Amino acid sequence: MDTYDFLADPRTLTLQERHEARERYAKDQVTWLARLRALAEGPLPDDDFPAFLLATAPFAELAARIGNATESKQLDPEVSDELSWFLRAFADYLKTCDGEEVFPENPRLTG
């Protein structure tokens, strides 16, 4: 299986595979991390936040909904909430696999 095709749930990757994906998406990481820091409504994502996930298929819809926004006030409230969820849910993605739930239920994403 090619781990870079990303399964429907990127949390199924091992920690090593996550770091390999981070390296593979290095350009996307730089671009998206800068954008997320401008869009975040709360703590800014750390350097090791997996911003590159927004360049993968599971998060293509969120990336499209973010569009060309350059500051949080340009986002619709629903998109802002979804982005906040994303920032919280993946804060430790490159640090650990311990104790993770597979995509904790987010009512905004399942509706």
Written account of the structure:
- By secondary structure, this protein is an all-alpha fold.
- The chain has five helices and no strands.
- It has helices spanning 15-24, 26-39, 60-66, 77-89, 107-110.
Number of helices: 5
Order of helices and strands: HHHHH
Shape: globular
Q: Number of DSSP strands?
A: 0
Share in helix:
40-55%
Strand content: under 5%
Q: Which consecutive residue ranges, at least 5 long each, have pLDDT under 50?
A: 106-111
Summarize the helices and strands and which ones pair or pack.
Layout: H1 15-24, H2 26-39, H3 60-66, H4 77-89, H5 107-110
Which properties best describe this structure?
single chain, 111 residues, mainly alpha, 5 helices
Question: What's a concise summary of this model?
Answer:
The chain is mostly helical.
